[in-house]
Amino acid sequence: MTTFQYSDQAMRSVYLFASLNDQQLMQLRQSMHRHQLEEGNFLFQQGEHANRFFIVLKGHIKLSRLSTEGAEKVIEFILTGQSFAEAIMFMSRQIYPVNAQAIGYTEVLSFENKVFLDILAQSFDTCLRVMCDMSMRLRGWLNEIDNLTLQNATYRLIWFLQQQLPKNPQFPAEILLDIPKNILASRLSVQPETLSRILKNLSQQGIISVEGKSIIIQNFDKLRSYDVSLD
What we know:
single chain; 231 residues; alpha+beta; Jelly Rolls; Arc Repressor Mutant, subunit A; 6-stranded antiparallel beta sheet; 3-stranded antiparallel beta sheet; 9 strands
């Protein structure tokens, strides 16, 4: 774990830091560390004391929980540039509720919760901005819960694919799935064989094509209006 320099521009691209001034960024940077993880290494495990939050600098992090029967359920996978575990700093019981594990070689930046909370205490405007941004993220998570619980497997995959597209994409558009398909299946609450069947069905209809780790969106209009009742 080593000190790592991270530019102000890069830091402000993270929603948590977007409204911080130069002095606040410098204050936060003093608590920043870089973690280098090999495939399968744990950043933290469920039940550990939580005193830091994180940003993925390179690679991917899998967040998962173990059931009482010992089965793993993937909660989320965190992509490059995304933050995670920040909400815990506002909880009365600060423990990590999930396991965080590297998918392939991964670099993560971490920041001390107490330092960030001290910054928020110094600025009402900064605190309000962070609250608004976190509320928007919470709304997204609630929508995802609805998708996972109320919709069928094909709809969940279609929703996921649309979330991976960049702004104003040009079609055909490529989505690189550099995570194992069994992890994606767990993330979407489907069996791996079900995911394979859905991908095959969408491919046969000319909506997508699958090329190795890439999914090519061939017909976005048809994907967006897909009638999941046909499955």
